[in-house]
Amino acid sequence: xxxxxxxxxxxxxxxxxxxxxxxxxxxxxxxxxxxxxxxxxxxxxxxxxxxxxxxxxxxxxxxxxxxxxxxxxxxxxxxxxxxxxxxxxxxxxxxxxxxxxxxxxxxxxxxxxxxxxxxxxxxxxxxxxxxxxxxxxxxxxxxxxxxxxxxxxxxxxxxxxxxxxxxxxxxxxxxxxxxxxxxxxxxxxxxxxxxxxxxxxxxxxxxxxxxxxxxxxxxxxxxxxxxxxxxxxxxxxxxxxxxxxxxxxxxxxxxxxxxxxxxxxxxxxxxxxxxxxxxxxxxxxxxxxxxxxxxxxxxxxxxxxxxxxxxxxxxxxxxxxxxxxxxxxxxxxxxxxxxxxxxxxxx
Length: 347
Ligand code: 5GP
Known about the structure:
The chain is an alpha/beta fold and 347 residues long. The chain is built from 12 helices and 14 strands.
């Protein structure tokens, strides 16, 4: 047994220190980034926020709504090839350029992925996602997907430490997805005791990935626009959001009426709800590691996206970053013991 003594930080442990700036207004800030990915050599331009590959977040309708803001959607893996075919027959190019195809790591997943990739040359991203990215099996799977699709931009995860980021980049990932345990409907830390505070995970993994020309997605734990700004400030190239984009008319969750009010069901992809739906039940050898919650219905996702982008733009003006790319360089985090003043309730 060993103990690491340095404290690891979450979003709630820091604030971003303001800096003198020549920017007059947040309208002068651009949140778009251009990347050319290490292995695929493909270029992409857009706002590097990604809707999480959860079936009550990342629907086709969400992709259409978010693409208008140049934001990405990692379409959840439970659509059939037929569903994809129908969607692709009417989707516009902008939407396709802002979608990721999510997949697990079984032989069946690989075959389905091959079918979906074959449907359109405009699909550019693959998101390989397993809860425990430390499995050797993920590295092998990434290598075989890279061999089969040399021109696709591949994201793989989830991990939280630099050693595994490097291994996944070397195996063929352009992007590594970072986050174990911070998610809003995740119970991994409670069920297993395993995890890593998300801001430190982002800072350390970004450093490892960037050293090899790779990129990272900070995945999970953002509860407000300020957290998204902190994730970018910490070095995340992309930030993935589940709960913040759930509960909208495009999210695809089941709508429930309670005492005259509308709620939307939102659950973790390893929750009992998800396993009952897709696997029939929770297998005897495993525990559910996700929650099921009912969120007050939030209406169209457009307003929420504008709110998030407005917040990140404002963070950029506070530190004098004209482009999102400059935010990390201009970020100094201060460690704090307070966040919002809640005397009149929470925002
Ligand atoms: P959020 O933005 O809601 O805080 O986090 C979203 C992320 O939580 C997802 O992208 C995914 O990595 C993670 N997640 C989703 N469902 C589950 C689950 O059932 N269990 C765990 N451990 N993590 C989950």
